[in-house]
């Protein structure tokens, strides 16, 4: 099925291996926004088609 982006759940084993590219700190998965969150860097990294996009320039800055 091609077309719309789906919110495929991220593999928990993959999540445990990933760290924030800015702080090297832990990430948490936000299912509502389908993003990986770095609290320390205040960035939200998008997940597109089940693949985390770990580029700081693609990340969304979190609101305080």
Automatic annotation (TrEMBL):
Q: Which organism is it from?
A: Acetobacter indonesiensis
Q: Which family does it belong to?
A: Belongs to the UPF0434 family.
Please provide one cellular component term from the Gene Ontology annotations of this protein.
Answer: cytosol
- Protein name (record): UPF0434 protein Abin_060_114
For this protein, the record's Pfam families field holds: Trm112p
Which Gene3D superfamilies does the entry link to?
2.20.25.10
